[in-house]
Each structure stands twice: as structure tokens, then as C-alpha cells.
Amino acid sequence: MTLALASFGASAAKAGAKKAGEEKVSAEKSADEKTAEEKAAAQAENSPDQLPPGQEVSDTVIELAGWIVASKDSQGYPFAIIDKAAAQILVFGGDGKLRGAAPGLFGSAVGDHTAPGVAGLALREIPGRDRTTPAGRFVGGFGPSIDAGRVLWVDYESAVSIHPTATGVPAEKRVERLASATPDDNRITHGCINVSPGFYERIMQTTFEKGGVFYILPDKDSLAETFPEFAQSRADTASNDGKRVRRR
Fold first, then answer.
1. Which residue positions in the chain have pLDDT lower than 70?
2. How, if at all, do strands 187-189 and 106-107 pair?
3. Would you list the domain boundaries of the chain?
4. pLDDT tens digits for range 60-110
5. CATH node for 10-20+30-241
């Protein structure tokens, strides 16, 4: 099912959580069948919804998206919610419409902070424990990089960007990890976020051409530490829901 690109609300978010199905293919196929398979693969690569079939979007992500729109926290800019634990990226326009969803690859180390000085190191010099994708709210946009040309910077100071899947080290199997049905093998990068080339070109580049806001959910830190205003709003809502009108 294609993504519903209506104004964001709880129902639209849940509609966005439904995944586009992919057909399973047998080992032996005729030439015509292979051609059909290649066409299907190309369609999947260009689909705005690339999440694995059956993979749900968490309530936290849905609630955060609703809060961002209701509170105008992104100030009218497009935004992305990035769930490291689920290895998901959901992209919204400045109008609150869901534009796309896809799996992503993240830092191989579990953690929510950037080690001091790591941005100045060559990739091979970054210790394994410091290969984290930081959590938090970041204002970013496209800009130049030393080694990869123009990239979508999430946080320039910590050298964290979103870019197409890197394939320079075949042993890392990044393409295979991105295509797997679970998030269990999606921690492989030095801290940057990888998405498929098709999703990057069709969704990320067009949506964030003039910049945007990136919300990265934490691995270990609490939501109150990472997004205090959202956490407070959530707590207030829960408190109000628990109140009862006094009988007279």
C-alpha cells in the first residue's frame, strides 16, 4: 500500500506504518520472470515506503510526529524522525504530510552522544566505542564534505550526515543489511546514517533541499533528557487523561 500523504494525524501516521509488500521469488525463473523481478525491484527502490513488510512504527514515533506538527516545533521546515532501535527513518514535509519511510543503517556503537574530537578523525581512526549516531534534535541541511562531495548534514559539528549506502567495503554487506527484514543487523556505520540511493534521491534530496529538522530517538537516554518539551507534553496528556470529573 502506498503511503497516505494527507495532513498528518494519528490515522495518517498509522496508514504510513503499513508497508508496501514485496513478492518472494523462487530460485529458478525464466528470462521473462527475471525481467519482471527486476522491474519490481526497481519499483520498490523508488517507492516512498521502503519499510520491510509487517514492520510497525512505534507509538513513540507517532506521538512525536503529532507533537512536532501540533507545537510547530520544526517551525514550518520539513522534518525526519529517526528511530535507531527500529532502524527506521520517517520523512515529513513542512506541512506535516508524510513523504516517505525507509530503513537506515546507523553507528555500530550503541550510544547517544558524540565523543569529543571524533569529527576531526579519519574514519579508520575512530575507536569502535565512539562510532555512535547521536540522539537529539538537530537543524541540518545540504553542504560540502571533504571526502563525499555534497551531503545532507544532520549535525555538522559531530560530522554526522545522511547519505546513500556506502559500498566501499564489501565485507560490511551494507546493502544486504539495509535490505534485511529486521533491524538487528543495521548497526554498521561510523556514525553516519545510510539509506538506499533511490530513497535518498527521491525523498531526502527533494524534501530537505532547503534544510530541515532531524529528531533522532535515543538508544539509552530517556525521552525526557533527549526531547524534554515533548516528554513534558506527553506527561501532561497522560495526567489529564487520568483525571475524572468530581460527582456533585
1. 1-46, 241-248
2. parallel
3. 10-20+30-241
4. 999 999 999 999 999 999 999 999 999 999 999 999 999 999 999 999 999
5. 2.40.440.10
Q: Per residue in 196-209, pLDDT tens?
A: 999 999 999 999 99
Burial per residue of 2-38, b for 16 or more beta-carbon CB atoms within 10 angstroms, e otherwise: ebbbeebeeebbebbbbbbebeeeeeeeeeeeeeeee
Q: What is the pTM of this model?
A: 0.80
Cell of 232: 513534558
| Alpha-carbon span 188 to 12, nearest angstrom | 31
Q: How far apart are CA 174 and CA 185, in angstroms?
A: 9
Residue type, position 165, single letter: T
CA 62/CA 92 separation, integer angstroms:
12
Report residue 197 as a C-alpha cell. Answer: 540511493
177 — phi, psi (to 5°)? Answer: -65, -40
